[in-house]
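Hi V.,

Quick status before I head out on leave. The structure for the redesign project is tokenized and pasted below; the design run finished overnight.
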């Protein structure tokens, strides 16, 4: 699989990585053995980048990855985790003392002395412009607790602020065929600054898999059931913030663009990876077959006509509500 440098980390990562939120919680129940099988299938397919967080299943996702890497040493996998959501979301909670506590817990969960990449997990907006926060993160690097740090954001202005700070190695942002706003400013700014881009929610929480309908139901503990209007966390994390039924209509249009031999999901992932400045795309996988299929998207080619079609769909269905022209 194609490898790209992840921004200022200098680390080479697969263009298609693995998001592991689903290995912890909020997507229904996940069997521990199934989690190990998903990680193994991803690596076998060429994946060298895992993304997790300390709050996914209250550490279960990190622990699953830690077990896998302990059982399979020297794989050369880069693991990015996130911190900050374990306390009430107030800017004053983003301190060096709390960072140390969160990082120590993640190091234990992942079974490592030094974390490859730690990202602030969608903190309150003022945190991104607080120089003391970046000083604290620099201290963790100097102490050897983390190798690099970055941010995970909800909004483009948050990404642009983080990119301004010299130590920011990467930005994780929602980017998919139904969420194009980052293409305007964030990706060009990141590229100019040498900051890596990690594209999350690439399938709009599964909408772009082409497998859902009006009749599809989701488990009670699945965020696609309980967070459709942002009841639990930012609505952009669930179906990219688009109306579910409108999204289904747009998917029908998207399916007409999919090249022969590729699945709808693979085409959606391939389109993101083709965007200038993207380092890696992190779809999740609930089973081995999904993990293998997602990784195979790295070999799918999409051209200018496909890109034009994606932009037409966005303009026709979503721009007015999500990303107005004026």
């Amino acid at each position: 699989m194609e490898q790209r440098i992840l921004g200022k980390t200098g680390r080479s990562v697969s263009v298609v990585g693995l998001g592991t939120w689903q290995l912890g919680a909020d997507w229904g129940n996940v069997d521990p053995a199934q989690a190990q099988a998903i990680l193994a299938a991803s690596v076998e397919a060429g994946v060298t980048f895992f993304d997790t967080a300390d709050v996914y299943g209250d550490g279960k996702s990190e622990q699953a990855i830690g077990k896998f890497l302990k059982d399979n040493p020297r794989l050369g996998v880069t693991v990015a985790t996130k911190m900050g959501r374990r306390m009430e979301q107030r800017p004053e909670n983003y301190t060096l003392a709390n960072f140390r506590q969160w990082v120590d817990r993640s190091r234990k969960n992942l079974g490592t002395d030094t974390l490859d990449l730690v990202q602030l997990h969608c903190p309150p907006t003022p945190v991104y412009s607080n120089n003391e926060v970046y000083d604290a993160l620099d201290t963790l690097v100097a102490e050897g607790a983390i190798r690099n740090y970055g941010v995970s954001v909800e909004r483009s202005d948050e990404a642009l602020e983080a990119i301004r700070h010299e130590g920011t190695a990467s930005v994780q942002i929602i980017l998919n065929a139904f969420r194009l706003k980052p293409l305007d400013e964030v990706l060009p700014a990141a590229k100019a600054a040498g900051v890596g881009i990690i594209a999350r929610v690439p399938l709009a929480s599964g909408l772009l898999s082409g497998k859902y309908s009006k009749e599809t139901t989701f488990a009670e503990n699945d965020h696609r059931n309980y967070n459709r209007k942002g009841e639990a966390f930012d609505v952009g994390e669930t179906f990219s913030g688009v109306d579910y039924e409108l999204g289904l209509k747009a998917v029908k249009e998207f399916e007409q663009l999919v090249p022969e031999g590729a699945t709808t999901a693979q085409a959606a992932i391939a389109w993101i990876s083709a965007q200038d400045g993207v380092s890696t795309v992190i779809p999740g996988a609930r089973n081995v077959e999904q993990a293998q299929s997602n990784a195979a998207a790295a070999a799918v080619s999409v051209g200018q006509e496909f890109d034009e079609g994606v932009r037409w769909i966005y303009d026709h269905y979503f721009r007015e509500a999500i990303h107005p022209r004026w």
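Above is the designed sequence. The longest helix spans residues 96-110.

G. will cover questions while I'm gone.

Best,
W.
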